[in-house]
Amino acid sequence: MEEKDYCCTCKWYATYEGVCCNGDSEHCADFRFLDDSCECWEEIKDEDNGQRN
């Protein structure tokens, strides 16, 4: 299954709070829905081996 560029799959999305934490995004510190997205979306990667979580 292919993951989409939604806030809920973004490296900078605080899931518990529902807030964008990306300082480069126009939505930074805004409440965002799980299926929202923006041009600053970044993939979540496992820091140890570069793989997706």
What does it look like?
Helices cover 0% and strands 8% of the residues. The chain has 53 residues and is largely without helices or strands.
Would you summarize the structure shown here?
With 53 residues, the protein is largely without helices or strands.
Query: Which range does the strand content fall in?
Result: 5-15%
Output the radius of gyration.
11 Å
List SSEs in N-to-C order.
EE
* Class inferred from helices and paired strands: little secondary structure
N/C terminus separation: 14 Å
Pick out its properties:
single chain, 53 residues, little secondary structure, two-stranded antiparallel sheet, globular
Secondary structure elements and pairings:
Layout: E1 13-14, E2 19-20
